[in-house]
Each structure stands twice: as C-alpha cells, then as structure tokens.
Design a protein that fits this description.
Umud Fragment, subunit A; 197 residues; alpha+beta; Arc Repressor Mutant, subunit A
Length: 197
C-alpha cells in the first residue's frame, strides 16, 4: 500500500522515464513535487524500492528502474477509437488499451533501424525502426532478416524455390536476388514497425 506522496513520486518517476528515457534525480523529483529536502525525497524513493515498486541499479539515482506492473505503465497506451484515412467515418470512442509489451517486446525480439529504400512498397522506409522476432526459419511471404554468405545482411520478402531462395525487394525499381539455399541464413522475421514523426 502506497501513501499519497509515494504514489505521486512513483507517477512522476514513471512519466519522467517515459518522456526522457531515464529516471529523474532526487533534486528533479523534489522540484517537481515542491519537496525542499533532498533527504525526504531520498526516504520516499528508498521506501518505493523497499516496497518493490522501483529497483535501483548502480549507485546513481538515475539508475532507478520501474518493476513489474509499474514497468507496464510505460508500454500501454489507451486505444480511443478509429480514424479514417480515406472517407470520414463516425467518431466513436472506445475505452480499450494497446499493450506494446505484448505486441512488440519479448526475450526473442530486437529492433533494427532501416537504411535504404528496397522495402518502400511494403511501407518500410529509410529511418524506420523494425521489430524482429529472432528465428532461423520463415514462411514464404515473410519479411525477413537474411544473412548472405555469412557476411551481408538484408531485409527482403522471402520466397523459397526448392534448393534456391529468392529475396524479393518491395520496390518496383529493384530486382530480386536468388541464391542457393545454403548461402542464406534467416536471422529473424519482421513483426512490427515504428515510425516517429
């Protein structure tokens, strides 16, 4: 059970991590919540660590991390409805949530930053971040991370032709690449994409 001030401090730390990518200092917490004593802030943050809401890594207070349910606050957004990208539709709001932990995160996931325009017709542009599920197998039609000859890696759509593998770009200006299957190793399959504006 948290005291009202502990809850406020936890909320501030959560929002700060979401916005800045790291925990606030004790001074920043005190300034935001009008607490003049750094010692008081220290006691409350230490209590949140003891109660299991925060985890401290290293000696610096910037090493504070959220734990358990608190860390999920960073990866859940409200889903408020639908919006038309064509003809207008009736504005109906839903009160649901999108859990990005379930969609994009996991022990077998990693992110890559795209360079180049070979997948633009699939909506993957230069500078986008793609989320990959690590696997060494893929089905025809999957967009894969393919390692060629153990040296070069590329992002293409996979098509298997028996003993040959075709890596197909999603750009009409570019040609497919065809290799003997033993020259291509699948390193992952695209499961998501992030584009920041």
């Amino acid at each position: 059970m948290l005291t009202p001030l502990e809850e406020k401090i936890l909320q501030f730390i959560t929002h700060h991590i979401a916005r800045e990518g790291h925990a606030p200092t004790l001074t920043e917490i005190g300034a935001a919540l009008s607490i003049r004593s750094k010692g008081t802030v220290h006691r409350y943050v230490a209590a949140l660590v003891r109660k299991g809401h925060l985890q401290r890594t290293g000696r610096n207070w910037r090493g504070i991390r959220l734990t358990g349910e608190n860390s999920r606050r960073l990866t859940i957004l409200p889903l408020l409805g639908r919006i038309a990208a064509g003809r207008p539709i009736e504005a109906i709001t839903d009160q649901k949530e999108i859990n990005f932990s379930d969609l994009l995160l996991g022990p077998d996931r990693y992110a890559l930053k795209v360079r180049g325009d070979s997948m633009i017709d699939a909506g993957i542009y230069d500078g986008d971040l793609i989320i990959i599920r690590h696997t060494d197998t893929a089905a025809n039609g999957d967009i894969v991370v393919a390692l060629i000859d153990g040296e070069e890696v590329t992002l293409k759509r996979l098509k298997k032709h028996g003993a040959r593998v075709e890596l197909i770009p999603a750009n009409r200006k570019l040609a497919s690449m065809v290799y003997p299957a033993e020259r291509v190793r699948i390193q992952g399959v695209v499961v998501g994409q992030v584009r920041l504006f």
